[in-house]
From TrEMBL:
The lineage of its organism: Bacteria, Pseudomonadati, Pseudomonadota, Alphaproteobacteria, Rhodospirillales. Coiled coil: none annotated. It is an enzyme of class 2 (transferase). This is Uracil phosphoribosyltransferase. It holds the Pfam family UPRTase. It catalyses: UMP + diphosphate = 5-phospho-alpha-D-ribose 1-diphosphate + uracil. The gene is upp. Uracil binds at residues 201, 206-208. Binds 1 Mg(2+) ion per subunit. The magnesium is bound as Mg-PRPP. Catalyzes the conversion of uracil and 5-phospho-alpha-D-ribose 1-diphosphate (PRPP) to UMP and diphosphate. Residues 13-215 form the Phosphoribosyltransferase domain. Transmembrane segments: none annotated. It comes from Azospirillum oleiclasticum.
Length: 216
């Protein structure tokens, strides 16, 4: 994991398997089914990386041979919050790692002309004592990511209890997000080159929602 020198809250997950799977996903010939499978797999690997620092405690258990104090994850409970639609594919992978995690949903789409997020659904679990992981494959202008964190703040979740997991980020969006929420750590597999005139990430992977669901 590499902390980006320009954005103190941005971490690049450079594990070879994550990088390899991202390359397969970027390929425009990848089928809808292949894209969806890869998004689940890569999210599982990314989830493994970003949960490395979860605190452990011990619990007394009995093995078939003896009693022991065995390690278990301590403290805060997790909530996974996909930003609809494409975040749903990432949430699936994380749930395989932490089946007991609650799941909230934030429905947003980017307005074609203004590039501002339009909210159409918010449904979230109770905030108390919970760490929230927002998942959305694309962080382009950063407007949707900032909006999603604002929604959680209004719900009573402080920035310290929020993490953002993206697959690909643009420098423009990383800067916008850092300015708005410097305490929220962003984890991504790649920081790409730039945004094009339609605010798509270059080289990117296209429209993540459309590629995952086979829409246009
Ligand atoms: O950083 P931004 O410029 O805000 O762009 C990123 C957003 O765009 C995509 O969603 P989209 O609006 O395409 O909705 P969809 O998932 O329903 O296709 C993506 O999944 C993010 O939510
Ligand atoms: O490149 C981009 C930018 C926004 N949303 C996407 O799905 N892809
Ligand atoms: Mg889309």
């Amino acid at each position: 994991m590499i902390n980006h020198p320009e954005f103190p809250n941005l971490f690049i997950l450079d594990h070879p398997l994550i990088q390899h799977k991202l390359t397969l996903m970027r390929d425009k010939e990848r089928s809808t089914g292949g894209f969806r499978t890869l998004l689940r797999e890569i999210s599982l690997l990314m989830g493994y990386e970003i949960t490395r620092d979860l605190p452990l405690t011990t619990e007394r258990i009995d093995t078939p041979l003896t009693a022991m104090d065995a390690p278990v994850i301590a403290g805060k409970k997790l909530a996974i919050v996909p930003v609809l639609r494409a975040g749903l594919g990432m949430a699936q992978g994380l749930h395989e790692l932490v089946p007991s995690a609650r799941e909230g949903h934030i429905g947003l789409y980017r307005d074609h002309d203004t590039k501002q997020p339009v909210e159409y659904l918010v449904k979230l679990p109770e905030p108390e004592g919970r760490v929230f992981i927002i998942v959305d494959p694309m962080l382009a202008t950063g407007n949707s990511a900032v909006h999603a964190v604002d929604v959680l703040n209004r719900h009573g979740v402080p920035d310290e209890n929020i993490r953002f997991l993206a697959l690909v980020a643009a420098p423009e969006g990383a800067a916008v997000f850092y300015a708005a929420h410097p305490k929220v750590k962003v984890f991504t597999a790649a920081l790409d080159s730039h945004l094009d005139e339609n605010a798509y990430i270059v080289p990117g992977l296209g429209d993540a929602g459309d590629r995952m669901f086979g829409t246009k």
